[in-house]
Design goal:
CATH topology of the largest domain: Isopropylmalate Dehydrogenase
Shape: elongated
Number of domains: 2
Strand order of the largest sheet: 15-14-16-13-12-17
Largest sheet: 6 strands, mixed
Oligomer: single chain
Number of helices: 15
Radius of gyration: 28 Å
Helix content: 25-40%
Protein backbone atom coordinates (compact mmCIF):
# COMPACT_ATOMS: atom_id res chain seq x y z
CA UNK A 1 0.00 0.00 0.00
CA UNK A 2 1.28 3.48 -0.84
CA UNK A 3 2.07 5.83 2.03
CA UNK A 4 -0.87 8.19 2.64
CA UNK A 5 -1.24 11.44 4.56
CA UNK A 6 -4.58 12.54 5.98
CA UNK A 7 -5.94 15.74 4.53
CA UNK A 8 -5.80 18.74 6.84
CA UNK A 9 -9.21 19.70 5.48
CA UNK A 10 -10.60 17.56 8.28
CA UNK A 11 -10.07 20.56 10.55
CA UNK A 12 -13.13 22.23 9.04
CA UNK A 13 -15.22 19.12 8.55
CA UNK A 14 -18.38 18.35 10.42
CA UNK A 15 -17.29 14.71 10.61
CA UNK A 16 -14.47 12.62 12.06
CA UNK A 17 -13.37 9.68 9.89
CA UNK A 18 -11.01 6.96 11.06
CA UNK A 19 -8.46 4.68 9.44
CA UNK A 20 -9.20 1.08 10.50
CA UNK A 21 -6.31 -1.33 10.97
CA UNK A 22 -6.76 -2.89 7.53
CA UNK A 23 -6.10 0.48 5.86
CA UNK A 24 -2.90 1.26 7.74
CA UNK A 25 0.64 0.84 6.47
CA UNK A 26 4.06 1.86 7.78
CA UNK A 27 4.77 5.47 6.87
CA UNK A 28 1.15 6.61 7.06
CA UNK A 29 1.00 9.90 8.95
CA UNK A 30 -1.32 12.65 10.08
CA UNK A 31 -0.76 16.00 11.74
CA UNK A 32 -2.34 19.12 13.13
CA UNK A 33 -1.05 22.66 13.58
CA UNK A 34 -1.80 24.58 16.77
CA UNK A 35 -0.61 27.97 18.03
CA UNK A 36 -0.33 27.82 21.81
CA UNK A 37 -2.05 30.73 23.56
CA UNK A 38 -2.01 31.88 27.17
CA UNK A 39 -5.64 30.81 27.35
CA UNK A 40 -4.66 27.24 26.35
CA UNK A 41 -2.12 27.13 29.16
CA UNK A 42 -4.55 28.54 31.72
CA UNK A 43 -7.30 26.10 30.74
CA UNK A 44 -4.89 23.19 30.97
CA UNK A 45 -3.77 24.39 34.40
CA UNK A 46 -7.40 24.66 35.52
CA UNK A 47 -8.27 21.15 34.33
CA UNK A 48 -5.09 19.44 35.54
CA UNK A 49 -4.59 21.43 38.73
CA UNK A 50 -0.96 21.99 37.71
CA UNK A 51 -0.41 25.60 38.80
CA UNK A 52 3.37 25.43 38.73
CA UNK A 53 4.31 29.15 38.59
CA UNK A 54 6.42 28.50 35.49
CA UNK A 55 3.09 28.08 33.68
CA UNK A 56 0.78 30.60 35.33
CA UNK A 57 2.75 33.29 37.18
CA UNK A 58 4.14 35.86 34.76
CA UNK A 59 6.30 37.64 37.34
CA UNK A 60 7.91 34.38 38.49
CA UNK A 61 8.30 33.10 34.93
CA UNK A 62 10.15 36.23 33.81
CA UNK A 63 12.83 35.51 36.41
CA UNK A 64 13.13 31.83 35.47
CA UNK A 65 15.63 30.29 33.07
CA UNK A 66 12.93 30.40 30.37
CA UNK A 67 12.31 34.19 30.72
CA UNK A 68 8.56 33.84 30.40
CA UNK A 69 5.60 31.53 30.81
CA UNK A 70 6.00 28.10 29.21
CA UNK A 71 3.36 25.52 28.38
CA UNK A 72 2.93 22.35 30.41
CA UNK A 73 4.80 19.48 28.80
CA UNK A 74 1.66 17.36 28.87
CA UNK A 75 -0.23 19.99 26.88
CA UNK A 76 1.91 18.82 23.97
CA UNK A 77 1.14 15.24 24.97
CA UNK A 78 -2.57 16.05 24.83
CA UNK A 79 -2.17 17.38 21.28
CA UNK A 80 -0.55 14.08 20.28
CA UNK A 81 -3.55 12.30 21.77
CA UNK A 82 -5.80 14.56 19.69
CA UNK A 83 -4.19 13.42 16.45
CA UNK A 84 -4.37 9.76 17.46
CA UNK A 85 -8.00 9.94 18.58
CA UNK A 86 -9.43 12.08 15.80
CA UNK A 87 -7.22 11.50 12.74
CA UNK A 88 -4.87 8.53 12.74
CA UNK A 89 -6.10 5.96 13.48
CA UNK A 90 -9.02 8.14 14.62
CA UNK A 91 -12.34 7.30 16.32
CA UNK A 92 -12.33 3.84 17.90
CA UNK A 93 -8.63 3.96 18.77
CA UNK A 94 -7.57 2.65 22.19
CA UNK A 95 -4.50 4.39 23.59
CA UNK A 96 -2.18 1.88 25.30
CA UNK A 97 1.00 3.78 26.05
CA UNK A 98 3.21 6.73 25.20
CA UNK A 99 6.83 7.73 25.69
CA UNK A 100 7.71 11.42 25.62
CA UNK A 101 10.99 13.29 25.54
CA UNK A 102 10.74 17.04 26.14
CA UNK A 103 13.55 18.63 24.15
CA UNK A 104 12.67 22.34 24.27
CA UNK A 105 10.18 24.59 26.09
CA UNK A 106 7.01 25.78 24.39
CA UNK A 107 6.26 29.48 24.87
CA UNK A 108 3.07 31.45 24.42
CA UNK A 109 2.65 32.14 20.69
CA UNK A 110 4.67 29.14 19.51
CA UNK A 111 3.09 27.27 16.60
CA UNK A 112 3.38 23.51 16.91
CA UNK A 113 3.07 20.98 14.11
CA UNK A 114 2.06 17.72 15.82
CA UNK A 115 2.67 14.62 13.72
CA UNK A 116 2.12 10.88 14.24
CA UNK A 117 3.56 8.30 11.82
CA UNK A 118 2.94 4.54 11.67
CA UNK A 119 6.13 2.59 12.43
CA UNK A 120 4.96 -0.99 12.86
CA UNK A 121 1.80 -3.11 12.83
CA UNK A 122 0.81 -6.25 14.76
CA UNK A 123 -2.06 -7.85 12.83
CA UNK A 124 -2.80 -10.47 15.47
CA UNK A 125 -3.66 -7.84 18.10
CA UNK A 126 -4.39 -4.86 15.80
CA UNK A 127 -1.66 -3.02 17.67
CA UNK A 128 0.09 -0.09 16.04
CA UNK A 129 3.28 1.66 17.09
CA UNK A 130 3.56 5.27 15.91
CA UNK A 131 6.36 7.80 16.10
CA UNK A 132 5.09 11.03 17.65
CA UNK A 133 6.67 14.45 17.27
CA UNK A 134 5.92 18.13 17.99
CA UNK A 135 7.92 20.68 16.00
CA UNK A 136 7.81 24.44 16.55
CA UNK A 137 7.73 27.26 13.99
CA UNK A 138 11.54 27.29 13.86
CA UNK A 139 11.62 23.61 12.81
CA UNK A 140 12.92 22.64 16.25
CA UNK A 141 11.70 19.38 17.79
CA UNK A 142 10.17 20.22 21.16
CA UNK A 143 8.62 16.83 22.01
CA UNK A 144 9.20 13.40 20.52
CA UNK A 145 8.35 9.87 21.50
CA UNK A 146 6.44 6.76 20.56
CA UNK A 147 2.80 5.74 21.02
CA UNK A 148 1.21 2.31 21.08
CA UNK A 149 -2.49 1.95 20.26
CA UNK A 150 -5.10 -0.62 19.30
CA UNK A 151 -6.48 0.50 15.96
CA UNK A 152 -10.21 0.26 15.24
CA UNK A 153 -11.43 -2.74 13.25
CA UNK A 154 -14.32 -0.97 11.52
CA UNK A 155 -14.55 2.10 9.34
CA UNK A 156 -16.28 4.92 11.23
CA UNK A 157 -17.55 8.32 10.16
CA UNK A 158 -18.95 10.26 13.12
CA UNK A 159 -20.33 13.75 13.29
CA UNK A 160 -18.01 16.02 15.24
CA UNK A 161 -19.38 16.98 18.67
CA UNK A 162 -19.73 20.71 19.24
CA UNK A 163 -18.37 21.49 22.68
CA UNK A 164 -19.46 24.46 24.80
CA UNK A 165 -16.96 27.30 24.88
CA UNK A 166 -15.15 27.04 28.23
CA UNK A 167 -15.31 30.15 30.37
CA UNK A 168 -11.95 30.94 31.89
CA UNK A 169 -12.70 33.04 34.94
CA UNK A 170 -9.52 33.29 36.97
CA UNK A 171 -10.29 36.41 38.95
CA UNK A 172 -6.95 36.41 40.71
CA UNK A 173 -4.41 35.83 37.94
CA UNK A 174 -4.27 39.33 36.47
CA UNK A 175 -4.86 40.87 39.86
CA UNK A 176 -1.82 39.07 41.22
CA UNK A 177 0.21 40.03 38.17
CA UNK A 178 -0.78 43.67 38.67
CA UNK A 179 0.21 43.54 42.34
CA UNK A 180 3.49 41.80 41.48
CA UNK A 181 4.38 44.60 39.07
CA UNK A 182 3.40 47.25 41.61
CA UNK A 183 5.44 45.63 44.39
CA UNK A 184 8.58 46.22 42.35
CA UNK A 185 8.10 49.96 43.03
CA UNK A 186 8.44 51.92 46.25
CA UNK A 187 5.02 52.73 47.75
CA UNK A 188 3.28 55.85 46.54
CA UNK A 189 2.38 58.59 49.05
CA UNK A 190 -1.41 58.74 48.93
CA UNK A 191 -3.91 61.00 50.64
CA UNK A 192 -7.11 59.10 51.38
CA UNK A 193 -9.94 61.63 51.39
CA UNK A 194 -12.57 61.23 54.13
CA UNK A 195 -12.27 57.44 54.73
CA UNK A 196 -15.33 57.33 56.96
CA UNK A 197 -16.94 54.11 55.75
CA UNK A 198 -15.86 50.53 56.41
CA UNK A 199 -15.07 49.90 52.72
CA UNK A 200 -13.06 53.10 52.24
CA UNK A 201 -10.97 52.63 55.37
CA UNK A 202 -10.46 48.90 54.85
CA UNK A 203 -9.27 49.36 51.25
CA UNK A 204 -6.78 52.07 52.21
CA UNK A 205 -5.36 50.10 55.14
CA UNK A 206 -5.08 46.91 53.08
CA UNK A 207 -3.19 48.74 50.32
CA UNK A 208 -0.86 50.20 52.96
CA UNK A 209 -0.23 46.78 54.53
CA UNK A 210 0.63 45.39 51.11
CA UNK A 211 3.24 48.07 50.56
CA UNK A 212 1.41 49.77 47.70
CA UNK A 213 0.80 53.11 49.41
CA UNK A 214 1.96 55.21 52.33
CA UNK A 215 -1.45 56.30 53.51
CA UNK A 216 -2.31 59.69 54.96
CA UNK A 217 -5.92 59.65 56.11
CA UNK A 218 -7.58 63.03 55.73
CA UNK A 219 -10.83 63.37 57.67
CA UNK A 220 -12.42 63.70 61.12
CA UNK A 221 -9.94 61.90 63.38
CA UNK A 222 -12.44 60.86 66.03
CA UNK A 223 -14.77 59.37 63.45
CA UNK A 224 -11.97 57.46 61.72
CA UNK A 225 -10.66 56.04 64.99
CA UNK A 226 -14.13 55.04 66.11
CA UNK A 227 -14.75 53.29 62.78
CA UNK A 228 -11.43 51.45 63.05
CA UNK A 229 -12.21 50.30 66.59
CA UNK A 230 -15.67 49.11 65.56
CA UNK A 231 -14.27 46.87 62.81
CA UNK A 232 -10.97 45.89 64.42
CA UNK A 233 -8.75 47.83 61.98
CA UNK A 234 -5.21 48.58 63.10
CA UNK A 235 -4.21 52.25 62.68
CA UNK A 236 -0.72 51.90 64.13
CA UNK A 237 1.77 53.83 62.02
CA UNK A 238 -0.96 55.47 59.93
CA UNK A 239 -0.99 59.28 59.85
CA UNK A 240 -4.36 60.99 60.28
CA UNK A 241 -4.81 64.62 59.29
CA UNK A 242 -7.74 65.88 61.34
CA UNK A 243 -10.29 68.05 59.52
CA UNK A 244 -13.92 68.66 60.50
CA UNK A 245 -15.84 67.37 57.49
CA UNK A 246 -15.68 66.03 53.94
CA UNK A 247 -15.44 69.48 52.27
CA UNK A 248 -12.40 70.31 54.34
CA UNK A 249 -10.93 66.85 53.66
CA UNK A 250 -11.15 67.36 49.88
CA UNK A 251 -9.55 70.82 50.08
CA UNK A 252 -6.76 69.60 52.38
CA UNK A 253 -5.95 66.54 50.26
CA UNK A 254 -5.78 68.61 47.07
CA UNK A 255 -3.49 71.08 48.83
CA UNK A 256 -1.19 68.23 49.90
CA UNK A 257 -0.94 67.06 46.29
CA UNK A 258 -0.44 70.59 44.97
CA UNK A 259 2.41 71.15 47.45
CA UNK A 260 4.10 67.85 46.58
CA UNK A 261 3.36 66.26 49.95
CA UNK A 262 1.55 63.31 48.34
CA UNK A 263 1.80 61.69 44.91
CA UNK A 264 -1.78 60.42 44.55
CA UNK A 265 -5.29 60.80 45.97
CA UNK A 266 -8.00 58.27 46.77
CA UNK A 267 -11.64 59.14 47.28
CA UNK A 268 -13.15 57.80 50.46
CA UNK A 269 -16.76 58.13 51.55
CA UNK A 270 -17.62 61.47 49.98
CA UNK A 271 -19.31 62.23 46.70
CA UNK A 272 -17.10 62.31 43.61
CA UNK A 273 -18.26 65.80 42.68
CA UNK A 274 -17.18 67.07 46.07
CA UNK A 275 -13.60 65.92 45.55
CA UNK A 276 -13.41 66.80 41.86
CA UNK A 277 -14.65 70.34 42.49
CA UNK A 278 -11.43 71.00 44.42
CA UNK A 279 -9.33 69.08 41.90
CA UNK A 280 -10.50 71.20 38.94
CA UNK A 281 -10.46 74.55 40.76
CA UNK A 282 -8.77 77.09 38.50
CA UNK A 283 -6.94 78.75 41.41
CA UNK A 284 -6.15 76.01 43.91
CA UNK A 285 -6.71 72.73 42.08
CA UNK A 286 -4.62 70.17 40.26
CA UNK A 287 -5.34 71.08 36.67
CA UNK A 288 -2.92 70.50 33.83
CA UNK A 289 -3.21 71.33 30.15
CA UNK A 290 -5.09 68.05 29.73
CA UNK A 291 -8.81 67.52 30.33
CA UNK A 292 -9.56 65.31 33.32
CA UNK A 293 -11.10 61.92 32.50
CA UNK A 294 -11.64 58.52 34.08
CA UNK A 295 -10.38 55.15 32.85
CA UNK A 296 -11.74 51.80 34.00
CA UNK A 297 -9.27 48.93 33.92
CA UNK A 298 -11.34 45.78 33.47
CA UNK A 299 -10.42 42.12 33.74
CA UNK A 300 -13.13 40.42 31.67
CA UNK A 301 -12.98 36.60 31.97
CA UNK A 302 -13.83 36.01 28.31
CA UNK A 303 -11.31 38.56 27.01
CA UNK A 304 -7.66 37.54 26.70
CA UNK A 305 -6.11 40.70 28.16
CA UNK A 306 -6.90 43.73 30.32
CA UNK A 307 -9.44 46.09 28.77
CA UNK A 308 -9.38 49.84 29.39
CA UNK A 309 -12.68 51.74 29.08
CA UNK A 310 -13.04 55.52 28.96
CA UNK A 311 -14.79 57.80 29.88
CA UNK A 312 -17.58 56.30 31.94
CA UNK A 313 -17.46 58.46 35.06
CA UNK A 314 -16.64 62.15 34.50
CA UNK A 315 -17.29 63.64 31.05
CA UNK A 316 -21.01 63.50 30.29
CA UNK A 317 -21.14 64.42 26.61
CA UNK A 318 -17.60 65.25 25.49
CA UNK A 319 -16.98 67.09 22.22
CA UNK A 320 -14.15 66.19 19.85
CA UNK A 321 -11.61 68.34 21.70
CA UNK A 322 -12.45 66.68 24.99
CA UNK A 323 -12.30 63.23 23.36
CA UNK A 324 -8.83 64.02 22.08
CA UNK A 325 -7.62 64.37 25.68
CA UNK A 326 -9.71 61.40 26.85
CA UNK A 327 -8.01 59.17 24.29
CA UNK A 328 -4.52 60.42 25.08
CA UNK A 329 -5.10 60.00 28.82
CA UNK A 330 -6.08 56.36 28.29
CA UNK A 331 -3.02 55.76 26.11
CA UNK A 332 -0.77 57.23 28.80
CA UNK A 333 -2.30 54.87 31.37
CA UNK A 334 -1.85 51.90 29.03
CA UNK A 335 1.84 52.76 28.73
CA UNK A 336 2.15 52.88 32.53
CA UNK A 337 0.60 49.40 32.68
CA UNK A 338 3.19 48.04 30.27
CA UNK A 339 1.17 48.11 27.03
CA UNK A 340 3.78 49.62 24.73
CA UNK A 341 1.55 50.38 21.76
CA UNK A 342 -2.10 49.99 22.75
CA UNK A 343 -4.82 49.38 20.21
CA UNK A 344 -7.57 51.95 20.71
CA UNK A 345 -11.10 51.33 19.39
CA UNK A 346 -13.31 54.42 19.22
CA UNK A 347 -16.84 53.09 19.57
CA UNK A 348 -20.04 53.95 17.79
CA UNK A 349 -23.21 52.03 16.99
CA UNK A 350 -21.86 51.22 13.52
CA UNK A 351 -18.52 50.68 11.84
CA UNK A 352 -19.17 53.08 8.96
CA UNK A 353 -18.82 56.86 8.99
CA UNK A 354 -22.35 58.25 8.99
CA UNK A 355 -22.98 62.03 9.07
CA UNK A 356 -26.28 61.51 10.89
CA UNK A 357 -24.50 59.72 13.74
CA UNK A 358 -22.19 62.15 15.53
CA UNK A 359 -20.28 59.44 17.37
CA UNK A 360 -19.20 57.87 14.08
CA UNK A 361 -17.94 61.23 12.82
CA UNK A 362 -16.01 61.83 16.05
CA UNK A 363 -14.51 58.34 15.84
CA UNK A 364 -13.33 58.88 12.27
CA UNK A 365 -11.84 62.26 13.20
CA UNK A 366 -9.95 60.78 16.16
CA UNK A 367 -8.55 58.00 13.98
CA UNK A 368 -7.32 60.58 11.47
CA UNK A 369 -5.85 62.69 14.28
CA UNK A 370 -3.80 59.67 15.29
CA UNK A 371 -2.63 59.27 11.70
CA UNK A 372 -1.48 62.92 11.72
CA UNK A 373 0.34 62.70 15.06
CA UNK A 374 -2.21 64.66 17.11
CA UNK A 375 -2.68 61.51 19.20
CA UNK A 376 0.52 59.60 19.92
CA UNK A 377 1.72 56.28 21.28
CA UNK A 378 -1.06 54.04 20.01
CA UNK A 379 -2.90 52.59 17.04
CA UNK A 380 -6.32 54.27 16.88
CA UNK A 381 -9.22 53.16 14.69
CA UNK A 382 -12.90 53.96 14.47
CA UNK A 383 -15.75 53.97 14.20
CA UNK A 384 -16.04 50.41 15.45
CA UNK A 385 -19.13 48.84 16.95
CA UNK A 386 -18.55 47.09 20.26
CA UNK A 387 -18.67 43.59 18.75
CA UNK A 388 -16.13 44.48 16.07
CA UNK A 389 -13.78 45.98 18.64
CA UNK A 390 -13.56 42.87 20.83
CA UNK A 391 -14.39 39.97 18.48
CA UNK A 392 -12.22 39.13 15.49
CA UNK A 393 -14.95 36.77 14.29
CA UNK A 394 -17.49 39.61 14.20
CA UNK A 395 -15.02 41.86 12.40
CA UNK A 396 -14.27 39.22 9.77
CA UNK A 397 -17.96 38.54 9.23
CA UNK A 398 -18.46 42.21 8.41
CA UNK A 399 -15.34 42.36 6.26
CA UNK A 400 -13.57 44.88 8.50
CA UNK A 401 -9.83 45.11 7.89
CA UNK A 402 -8.28 46.88 10.86
CA UNK A 403 -5.25 46.38 13.13
CA UNK A 404 -7.52 47.18 16.11
CA UNK A 405 -10.70 45.21 15.35
CA UNK A 406 -11.09 42.16 17.55
CA UNK A 407 -7.96 42.99 19.57
CA UNK A 408 -8.63 46.31 21.30
CA UNK A 409 -6.75 47.30 24.45
CA UNK A 410 -8.76 50.51 24.94
CA UNK A 411 -12.44 51.23 24.28
CA UNK A 412 -13.42 54.89 23.90
CA UNK A 413 -17.15 55.35 24.37
CA UNK A 414 -19.27 58.15 22.83
CA UNK A 415 -20.55 59.53 26.14
CA UNK A 416 -20.92 58.81 29.85
CA UNK A 417 -24.28 57.05 29.46
CA UNK A 418 -22.86 54.52 27.02
CA UNK A 419 -19.65 54.07 29.01
CA UNK A 420 -21.35 53.57 32.34
CA UNK A 421 -23.73 51.00 30.88
CA UNK A 422 -20.91 49.07 29.19
CA UNK A 423 -18.78 49.06 32.36
CA UNK A 424 -21.63 47.95 34.61
CA UNK A 425 -22.79 45.28 32.16
CA UNK A 426 -19.29 43.82 31.95
CA UNK A 427 -19.00 43.88 35.72
CA UNK A 428 -22.38 42.41 36.63
CA UNK A 429 -23.21 40.20 33.62
CA UNK A 430 -19.75 39.20 32.40
CA UNK A 431 -18.19 38.91 35.88
CA UNK A 432 -15.50 41.47 35.12
CA UNK A 433 -13.24 42.80 37.85
CA UNK A 434 -13.04 46.59 37.72
CA UNK A 435 -10.48 49.10 38.93
CA UNK A 436 -10.13 52.68 37.85
CA UNK A 437 -8.20 55.90 37.91
CA UNK A 438 -8.68 59.58 37.08
CA UNK A 439 -6.23 60.92 34.54
CA UNK A 440 -5.35 64.43 33.43
CA UNK A 441 -4.65 65.92 36.86
CA UNK A 442 -1.22 66.55 38.37
CA UNK A 443 -1.49 63.30 40.32
CA UNK A 444 -3.40 60.03 39.83
CA UNK A 445 -6.75 59.94 41.59
CA UNK A 446 -8.41 56.70 42.67
CA UNK A 447 -12.10 57.45 42.24
CA UNK A 448 -13.88 54.58 43.95
CA UNK A 449 -17.58 53.83 44.14
CA UNK A 450 -19.42 53.00 47.34
CA UNK A 451 -20.12 49.57 45.81
CA UNK A 452 -16.43 48.86 45.12
CA UNK A 453 -14.86 46.00 47.07
CA UNK A 454 -11.58 46.21 48.95
CA UNK A 455 -10.19 44.06 46.12
CA UNK A 456 -11.11 46.77 43.59
CA UNK A 457 -9.71 49.55 45.77
CA UNK A 458 -6.42 47.70 46.19
CA UNK A 459 -6.14 47.12 42.44
CA UNK A 460 -6.83 50.82 41.83
CA UNK A 461 -4.07 51.73 44.30
CA UNK A 462 -1.68 49.44 42.42
CA UNK A 463 -2.58 51.20 39.17
CA UNK A 464 -2.03 54.61 40.80
CA UNK A 465 1.38 53.45 42.01
CA UNK A 466 2.42 52.20 38.57
CA UNK A 467 1.18 55.42 36.98
CA UNK A 468 2.97 57.67 39.48
CA UNK A 469 6.25 55.78 39.02
CA UNK A 470 5.86 55.80 35.24
CA UNK A 471 5.36 59.57 35.27
CA UNK A 472 8.40 59.98 37.49
CA UNK A 473 10.50 57.87 35.17
CA UNK A 474 9.27 59.76 32.12
CA UNK A 475 9.99 63.15 33.67
CA UNK A 476 13.48 62.04 34.72
CA UNK A 477 14.16 60.71 31.22
CA UNK A 478 13.10 64.05 29.72
CA UNK A 479 15.12 66.12 32.21
Amino acid sequence: MDTQTLSTAADDSDFLENRPFAELAPGDCASLVRTVSQRDIQLFAAVSGDVNPAHVDAAYARSSRFHGIIAHGMLGGALISTVLGTRLPGPGTIYLGQTLHFAKPVHIGDTLTVTVEVESLDAAKRRVVLATRCVNQDAQVVIEGEAEVIAPAEKLRIRRTDLPEPLLADKNLRYEQLLAAARECAPVRMAVVHPCSKEALEGALAAARMGLITARLVGPQAKIRSLAAEHGFDLEGIEIIDVPHSHAAAAQAVALARDGEVDALMKGSLHSDELLADVVSAHSGLRTGRRISHVFVLDVPRYPKPLLLTDAAINVAPDIEAKLDIVQNAIDLAHALGIARPKVAVLSAVETVTPKLASSMDAAALAKMADRGQITGAIVDGPLAFDNAVSIAAARTKGIVSPVAGDADVLVVPDLDAGNMVAKQLEYLADAQAAGIVMGARVPIVLTSRADSAHSRIASCAIALLLARHRLGTSEANA
